[in-house]
Structures are given as C-alpha cells and as structure tokens.
Amino acid sequence: MNEPAVRVTGLRRRLGDKSVLDGVDLAVGAGELITLVGPSGCGKTTLLRVIAGLESLESGSVHLAGRDVTDVPPEKRRVGLVFQDNALFAHLRVDRNIAFGLRHLPRAQRAERVHEMIRLVKLEHLARRWPHQLSGGEQQRVALARALAPSPDVVLLDEPFGALDEVLREELGWEVKAILAQRNTGAILVTHDRHEAITLGDRVAVMDEGKILQCAAPRVAYDQPATRFVADFLAVASYVRGADGQMQLARPHQLRVAVGGQHTITRVEFLGAAHRYTIRAADGSTLVADVGPDEPLQVGAACSVFVIER
Amino acid sequence: MSGKIPSAVAGWAIILVVVALFASPVIVLAWSLADPASEVWAQLWQTRLPRMIVDTAVLLITVVLGAVVVGTSLAWLVSAHDFVGRSIIGWLLVTPLAIPGYVGGFVWLDTLSTVVGARGVRSIWLCAAVLVVSLYPYVYLFARAAFADQGGDTLAAARSLGCRPLEVFWRVAIPTARPAIAAGAALVAMEVLTDIGTVRLFNVSTLADGVMRVWFDSGNRGAATELASALTGAALVLVAAERLLRRGARRIRRAGETPLVPRTLSPFRSWLTLIGSLMVITVAVLVPLVRLIDWTLEATRSGQAVTVAGGIGHHATNTLMLAGIATVVCITIGTMLALVVTRRGRAARVVGRLATVGYAMPGPVVAVGVVVTLAALDRRDWLPGGFILVGSLVGLVFALVTRFFAVGYQGVEASLDRLAPSTRESARILGSSSVRTAVTVEIPAARYGLLAATALLSVDMVKELPITLLLRPFGVDTLAVWVWQATSESLWAQAAVPSLLMIAVGMIAVGILLTALERGGEFTS
After folding, report:
1. Smallest CA–CA separation between A75 and chain B, in Å?
2. Can you give the pLDDT at residue B525?
3. Are residues A160 and A277 in the same domain?
4. What would the pLDDT profile of A70-112 be if each residue is shown by its tens digit?
5. What is the C-alpha separation between B510 and B522, in angstroms, rounded?
6. Cα–Cα 20 to 30 A to B183, which of A79, A111, B221, B253?
7. Is B172 in the A-facing interface, judged by CB distances under 8 Å?
8. B248 vs A132: CB contact, 8 Å cut-off?
9. Domain check: are A228 and A242 in the same one?
C-alpha cells in the first residue's frame, strides 16, 4: 500500500473564459497532511470539490488510493469532507450524524464505530445532543468524526477553522492533525491563514490563479520559495540586493538594523518578544525587520540594514 | 418624562387593542361552544353531520398529502437540478396561486364530464385533484425557501458519505425542510377547510359547505354557529398537528454558507423534467385559461348578454375596492403591530400572536363569528344614528381583515426580525425618534416583506368567497360572488369573464409576490 492517498494530474476546469484550474498536479501520501493556501478565488476550494467529485473536469484525472475515480460519482469515492460551516445535519443528533455514512455496516459494528469516533474526538458526553446545542469547535469535531467514520482514503477540509476564534482555531488545528495522524489518513486542508498553513502542514501547497506554484515542506517553501508570489504569500518578505548584485529574499529575522544610514523607519510595532520595523529604503522599496525587545528606535529615525544568514 | 405617556404603556395599549379586535370573533364563537344546543346537535348528528365529517377528513388528508408530494418534489426538482427552462419553470409553477380552486374546478368539471359523464365527474377524488393542483404552490414556495436555506455543503457532505442524489433528498433535504413543509401543508389544509366553492361543484359535503348550506338554505343561524364551532375543532386539531410537526425546527448558525449548486441533468432527463413540469402547469393554468377564453369568445360571438345584475364593471369595481380596502387596513394595522411588538420583546410577541388567530380559522367560521359578534354589538345600540354593523361594509372589511390579519402581520414581523437590533439602536443613538426610526429605517428595511404580504393578501382577498357571501352589504357583489352564483346554476360561460378578471389580478399579484421574494432573498429562480 504505497499508493498515495490522492494523485491528481493535469486538472483543468474553466468557468466562462476564466481558468479555475489550470493544469494542477498534486499527490498526497498516505497519512500526509497537505495544507493548501492561496488568495480567495485562486481555485483551492474548486480543487477540493473536484477531488470529492462534486465538480466536473475538462481534462485531467483523479486517483484515490491507486483507484481511478475521475468518472466516479461522489458517493462512491470514499472521500471525507469537512466544511467551514460544518454542514452537520440539523435533524440528527451527534451520534446519528456520525453514523450517517455507515449504513453498509451491520448494526453492532456501526454502533462500535460511532463509539470509537466519538472517543477519538473526545465528545463522549455530547453524543445525544443536537448539533445546534454545541459550540462551534464541538460542531467541527463532530464534522471531522462524521467524515472519518467510514474510513475514507482521504479527508478534505475546506477552511475548517475559519469560523472559530483564534485561540480555539490553533488548538483544534493541532488536535485535528493528531487525529489524522492517529488514523493514518491523508488529508488536504484548505486555509487562507498562512500561519496555519506553515505550522500544520507536512507539506504546504501555494496556489494562485488555478496553478499550484509550489508544494514543499513548510521550511523549504519558507526559505526557498519557488516564486516571489510564494515568498510574499507565506510570510513577510523583504528584498535586498546581495553581494552578487542579485535581489535576495530576506525574512524579518534575517535583517539587522543599525542606527544611522540612508533608510528611514516608518513604523514600529511591538510584537511582545520583538519589535518590528517597517523601513523605507533609500531606493524606495520597503523592508521589514524584527529586532529585540529593547527600547526601539523612533519612527523617522535614519538607519541602515544588514542581511545575516539564518 | 412628566406629562408624556411612557412608550411602554402606549405600546402595550396598541397591542391589546389590536388583539381584542381580531381575537374577539373567535372568542365569541368559542363561548357558544361552551353552551352547546343539544337538540341542534342531535338533529345534525342524525342527518348530515356524519357524512360531513367523513368527507371533510377524506378530502383534507388526500389534498394535503397530494399537495405535499407535488409541491415538495417540484421544489426539489427546480432547486437542486439544472434543466432546460429552469428559471422560467420555477416561476410558472407558482402561477396556480392566481387561479381560485373553484374556477379550476368548474373548468375541469365541464371538461371531464364529456369523458366520464356528468354524474361520474362529481366525485370527491376529482375534487381533491383539482384542489391539489391549485394549492400545491403553498408547499412549493415554502419548500423552495427551505431547500435554498440548507445550502450546498450539507448536501455535498451527504453525497460524500455515500448517498445517491435521490437518497440525499430522502435522508437530508426532506427531514431538514420538514418544518417548512409542515407550514406549507398547514396553509393547504386551512384552504381545504375554508373552501366552499370547489366542494359545492363536486357535491362534496364538507363542514364548511354545511355551515353555508345551513345558513342560507334553512336559515338556521343557531345550527350554523354550532357547525362552525365543530369546524373550529377541526382547525384546532390541525394547528396542533402543525406545531407537533414543526417541533424540532432547528437551525445551526452557519458561518460561510455556500449556496445550493443545482446539478446539471442529462439532456434526456432535462427534457423529461421540463415536460413533467409543463404538464402540471398545463393542468393547473393553461387548460383553465384556454377554456375560459374560449367561453368568453363564444359568448361574445353569439351575442349572449350578461344576465347577472349590475354588469361586469360593477362587480370588478366592487372587488377591487373591497380587496383594496381590506388589504390596506390589514397591512397598516399589521405593520403597526409588528413595529410595536418587535420593540417590546418576548411577552409582547406571544400576546401579539393572538391577533392572528383568525388565520387558523376557516373562512365560514370567521364569518359566523363576526356576524355573532357584530349582532351582539348592534343589539346594544351603541353606535350613533342607529348604524347597524351586520350587513355593512365596515362589518365585511372587519371580517376579511380578521381572517387574513396573520398574512399582513407575520410577513412584516419576519422582515423586521432580520433587521439587526444594532441598526435600530444606531438610528436612535443618532437622534432619530421612535416614529422616525420606524418610517426611515425599519419600514424601508422591511419593504420586500411588506410588498410580498400585500401581494399575497390581494390574491386571498380577490378570491375570497365564504366571508363575502355571508357578510356583503346588499348590492355589493364581487367577481367571486358572480362566479359562485353562475356556477351553482351550471352557467359556465357566464362565469368565464369574471373568472378571467380575477385571474388577471391574481397573476399580477403573483408576479409582484415573486419579485418581492426574490429581491428579499427568499426565493431564487
């Protein structure tokens, strides 16, 4: 079973004269979590819907666990879906929601699986509640349990934490990652939050205008972005001319600031453990540098900037 | 604050006056139920009552089931599928609302009697079929709103969890839409209990028909009152059933709701769906229209003079005037009550609901209740100049408004509820008085709800029959009354022109209704 959970090749889909998917290739390994980021309208949700079989294709193919499912309807694909709006069935209690996709199992096995899932997402005390009686985080955990219950080949999560507040979002993100790892289920998690993308993903895929620009381990994408768009999208980036005369990417922690020089500080932000300077360079470009928490320079101060290696 | 009436007192005063006004006919009728005339009941029981109960029950169950099946499946077809002509069909399927059941009834009665014979055609099943075709749009409209409300994600999740499209309908769409479908079904049921025109055509003796017959034929007002209270009993059972079915109406607050994306059908299925929907529209609208126009042309050719007293202009004017006045009164008082109630909180809401009790009562019941109430007032001789309410225009309008008040009130209330409280508070903080806020912020925000309610009310008022029949002042005849009189003597051709006029008014109103619902985001085509 070394087949990837998902392998899509050459996906193309147009909407009017706009390319929504423009030759997308992507593979998700078994048990791997790929985070998919990009600006809104870049095609990330469409890609999920194509993999789930909810939207049609002009060309390309979708393989799930080695099976060609390009022309298979969604109900036969063995894909788990989790949406931002949780999409729970309002007319069913928590346990019945989770049991929804288990009709093929004999009754006893079904009950056992539901139980297992409820334990997995730690909702034992809420099994007989109605979805509307749960908090947003609990609803999302039910949605995950429901998606995982039929043991799908892959779970697709479309901005699952988008509606939650920041603290809960981070906590639930780690929990979901742990649960997916525990079940050894491959997953694609769509998000517009770059922080979420680089912290949660085994690999992060950056999408723009229907294309995947780079799909790599977060650290690789962060340090060696394939394009300037990827560099800017994943984290704050400055560009400085290197010794070889080439423009070189520098993340905020790679810049050192000294008093006096040709650049001007235009903004000072207190980040807690550091201060972040926004600097107008002599050539008119903007640089962002993080410095220590000591008493910062003032807005308007003249400064110079050096690049250090990581 | 001194010297000024606190707004809470004024608010509650308005609520209580409106409630007292519109709940009193029903309360008065309930009073008479508490003191039943046993000899009347004994006689009714021995003669017609058993058959009335059976006919009412059979008709009610058949029509409600039929309308739910037809309305819900059509709503699902149009909401969740993409086929040739989908958006036009989506609209056309609402148009049967413009055709009163008794108009469709006499057209089909005549059309079918050439096929099954004049005797066989007068059956309860055909009557039920005619009513289903004319009443399913209530369920259709409610179900479409509910399906649109479910959003695409829930249905997509169901597909991914192993449901075929039809299973999605059964296992998710229907259960989730159940409260809305129940609400639509309740409206249909109430229309069946109210109907006197269609059942009379097909010789079905329901309780409503019984009230009218006893009132007019035997002139026994006591017996009619007793029957009306029996009908009230049936209506109360219905309201309870609806409450029960609506229980568990739950909505999860969703963050980023994705709209339902209709599934594209294969060309074959697409055409099949189109043909199926067109057949429903043909039976419900097209055949009645064609036949009515045919009758009209024939009458014109043969120079047949209109024999109903007063002429068509007189009837049309009366209809428009009456429907207009009643609608305006309904909307005005309804808006006022809704504005006050939304400010006064939960208790006010519960009390305010009492004013809508007339809508849960069949037309003949409201008519009898109003007559009994007004007659009691007339006997006291309170009004100046010996003015008699029974048989006056005031009495008739009062009865119509009592019956349909809920349509005006609830439509506006629902729209006002959608206005975020912070919007109203902002207006107040910016120095706008309560009245100015109502006029400049709340009413404009509720405009589509108001428009939809007005349109729906005008359709209801124009085709209304039992209340107008019982309470119209001498000489004030409406188009509906003309159709009633002509059809009770089987003069179909005579009924054609007024029917067409009613349908014309109805179609305009349905057009306005759909536009208002669409603009208000409650209906998408």
Report:
1. 4
2. 47
3. no
4. 999 999 999 999 988 888 888 889 999 999 999 889 999 999 9
5. 15
6. B253
7. yes
8. no
9. no
Model confidence, pTM: 0.84
Name the residue facing B156 among A54, A88, A101 (closest C-beta).
A54
- Mark which of A198, A232, A266 sits at the end of a domain: A232
> How far is the alpha carbon of B191 from chain A, nearest alpha carbon, in Å?
29
Nearest CA in chain A to B258: A85
Which pLDDT does position B255 carry in this prediction? 45
Q: Which CB contacts under 8 angstroms, 24+ apart, belong to A246-255?
A: A248/A307, A249/A225, A250/A287, A250/A307, A251/A222, A252/A276, A252/A288, A252/A289, A252/A290, A253/A290, A253/A310, A254/A307, A254/A308, A254/A309, A254/A310, A255/A287, A255/A288, A255/A289, A255/A290, A255/A305, A255/A306, A255/A307, A255/A308
Give the pLDDT mean for B305-329: 82
Among B153, B159, B252, whose Cβ lies nearest the Cβ of A132? B252
Q: Would the CB atoms of B153 and A83 count as touching at under 8 Å?
A: yes
A158 domain-assigned = yes
What is the pLDDT, as a whole number, of residue B276? 93
- pLDDT on residue A266: 94
- Domains recognised in chain B with CATH numbers: 38-250+258-286 (1.10.3720.10), 305-525 (1.10.3720.10)
Could you tell me if A81 lies within 8 Å of chain B, comparing CB atoms?
A: yes
A131 touches chain B (CB under 8 A): yes
At B249, the pLDDT band (50, 70, 90 cuts) reads low
In DSSP terms, A205 is beta-bridged to A36, A215
Instruction: Answer yes or no: do A91 and B250 touch at CB < 8 A.
Output: yes
The pLDDT tens digits for A225-269 are: 999 999 999 999 999 887 787 888 999 989 989 898 899 999 999
> Contacts of residue A79 in chain B, CB cutoff 8 Å?
160
